[in-house]
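Propose amino acids for all 609 sites.
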């Protein structure tokens, strides 16, 4: 039997779970070092091929190296608005790790942030928002002339459920002081005190070789700074632990303390990080009580104080935390909960639009809204939501998941996201394009039931005469099949999906394209691993990419062609949570060798027969 060259295609992109209800992102950390068309080399092999196989492999690689940059194959006269996109990790892009910024700039028109523009990447557990990474990403893209496709504004995964649920917590009723509940000991006990310098503890000295010191005395916590630190140093110390503080509850903290000089004390509950401090107060030289009110930034835990570069001693004699009786509450009504979440969503989207400042003109405004079931029997799939038990309580509660639509309603959920995006967009309103993005739109088992349902849902959302959705994004995390019948069926339903999308009149985008390979006749057998793929199977995958791209251009009218995004630029590592170890990319490790799928992409973009 003739031997074939088996390429070892180890990967550079690290993906987290991105299937169905739990999408995540590529984390690219490799790139084509010098993105040119003449200096590519082959990967190492897992077997020693026969001379003829080796020659064939070298000839194939030479052919692939002769291709131009991918975006140059798009006929801009025929497809004037088309954007060729790649997904990546924004930190790798910022730092140009292994030249990744150079590579994507050469090959793509547009880039997509893997995680950085998702809710949980910006909003912390206490509801504070930090858009610094987003702003840096926008600045980096502007510097090299790449547009950004925003992913994503409304989704049920990668949320902050604790914070969002706290907004809808029962409303506390004012009670007399005598009924307030003490959650700490009135006096701090020696055994409960601990202290340290968080960043520059005992093992680090300042520029003059003088350490910070933290001492606990029998009277309380004494923090001493022997010498003023430089601006990169701060002293943080814990003064009480073992608390059981809750989100959405207002607490009163009373501290009896004094300082050897005037000091500013920042305080927090449960969080290590200065960005999350609840507030601050000035401490003088006389022993006195200081009273502050706060809501915890996380559930917990402990009380943390920070004195920055203060020089001197601080003595804490006692600390007491109280809150109103937890049994004195009134639950919010369904309407109050809905209104609260409308406010929270609007606040989040307003912040993102402010951070991107009109540069990001296209967005997945709603991501993965549809389920694959029609429980209410109306002929279209329901939106994803919590599953309820016999008591009407959610049962499928999981980490990072929050179904906004459960509280807001199926129509209000999407309409609010669209309205907020349009209201807060900083550029020309006519330039803003909003997409609904989902997976399994090319599904064979239900004859494209999901894309049919999605089109009907768009009609529902737009029936108010105000809401406007510009486009549909199809993720297409697909497989190429050894079985001719399975492959034919997959191609048939991809064509049908494009026809349905085109008939909707909306912009059409392939949003997260990647591909595995399934051997045998079992559709659900799972993809083989990268090191198992033969040259013939690599070519079959390349032909499938070419087929998909050509059909997109043939079926989708030019005025509706927004673009195509390749989600996995290189193959997934074996430890990845997303298609781990599968041949999903178009480059090998470090982008040092193009795969056959690179040629399939180029030929598809060029319209080669």
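Proposal:
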């Amino acid at each position: 039997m003739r031997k074939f060259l088996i390429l070892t295609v180890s990967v550079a992109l690290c993906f987290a779970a991105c299937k169905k209800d739990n999408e995540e992102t590529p984390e690219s950390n490799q790139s084509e070092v010098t993105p040119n068309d003449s200096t590519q080399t082959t990967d190492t092999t897992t077997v020693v091929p026969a001379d003829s196989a080796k020659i064939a492999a070298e000839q194939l690689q030479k052919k692939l190296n002769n291709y131009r940059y991918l975006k140059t194959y798009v006929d801009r006269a025929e497809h004037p608005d088309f954007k060729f996109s790649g997904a990546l990790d924004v930190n790798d892009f910022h730092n140009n790790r292994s030249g990744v910024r150079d590579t994507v700039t050469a090959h793509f028109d547009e880039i997509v942030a893997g995680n950085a523009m998702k809710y949980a990447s910006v909003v912390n557990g206490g509801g504070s928002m930090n858009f610094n990474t987003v702003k840096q990403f926008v600045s980096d893209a502007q510097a090299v002339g790449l547009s950004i496709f925003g992913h994503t504004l409304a989704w049920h995964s990668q949320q902050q459920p604790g914070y969002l649920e706290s907004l809808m917590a029962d409303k506390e009723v004012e009670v007399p002081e005598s009924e307030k509940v003490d959650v700490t000991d009135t006096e701090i006990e020696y055994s409960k005190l601990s202290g340290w310098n968080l960043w520059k503890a005992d093992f680090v000295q300042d520029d003059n070789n003088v350490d910070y010191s933290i001492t606990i005395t029998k009277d309380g916590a004494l923090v001493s700074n022997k010498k003023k630190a430089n601006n990169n140093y701060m002293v943080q110390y814990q003064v009480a632990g073992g608390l059981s503080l809750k989100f959405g509850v207002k607490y009163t903290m009373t501290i009896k303390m004094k300082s050897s000089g005037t000091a500013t004390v920042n305080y927090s509950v449960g969080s290590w990080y200065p960005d999350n401090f609840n507030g601050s107060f000035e401490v003088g030289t006389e022993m006195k009580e200081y009273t502050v009110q706060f809501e915890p930034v996380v559930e917990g835990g402990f009380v943390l104080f920070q004195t920055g570069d203060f020089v001197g001693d601080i003595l804490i004699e006692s600390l007491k935390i109280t809150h109103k009786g937890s049994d004195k509450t009134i639950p919010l009504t369904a309407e109050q909960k809905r209104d609260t979440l409308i406010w929270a969503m609007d606040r989040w989207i307003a912040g993102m639009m402010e951070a991107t400042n009109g540069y990001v003109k296209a967005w997945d405004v709603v991501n993965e809204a549809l389920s694959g079931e029609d429980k209410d029997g109306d002929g279209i799939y329901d939106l994803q939501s919590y599953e309820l038990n016999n008591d009407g309580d959610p049962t499928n509660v999981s980490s990072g998941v929050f179904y906004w639509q459960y509280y807001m309603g199926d129509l209000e959920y999407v309409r609010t996201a669209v309205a907020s995006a349009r209201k807060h967009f900083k550029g020309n309103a006519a330039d803003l394009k909003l997409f609904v993005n989902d997976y399994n739109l090319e599904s064979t088992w239900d004859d494209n039931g999901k894309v049919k349902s999605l089109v009907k849902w768009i009609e529902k959302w737009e029936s108010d005469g105000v809401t406007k959705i510009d486009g549909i994004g199809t993720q297409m995390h697909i497989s190429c099949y050894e079985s001719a019948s399975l492959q034919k069926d997959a191609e048939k339903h991809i064509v049908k999906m494009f026809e349905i999308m085109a008939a909707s009149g909306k912009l059409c985008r392939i949003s997260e394209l990647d591909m595995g390979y399934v051997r045998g006749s079992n559709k659900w057998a799972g993809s083989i691993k990268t090191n198992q793929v033969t040259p013939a199977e690599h070519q079959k995958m390349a032909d499938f990419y070419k087929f998909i791209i050509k059909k997109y251009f043939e079926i989708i009218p030019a005025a509706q062609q927004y673009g195509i995004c390749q989600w996995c630029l290189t193959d997934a590592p074996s430890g990845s949570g997303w298609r781990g170890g599968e041949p999903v990319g178009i480059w090998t490790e470090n982008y040092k060798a193009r795969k056959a799928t690179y040629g399939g992409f180029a030929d598809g973009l060029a319209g080669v027969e």
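Residues 1-48, 185-234 have pLDDT under 50 and may be disordered. The chain has two domains: 13-74+82-164+333-525+540-569+576-606, 173-329.
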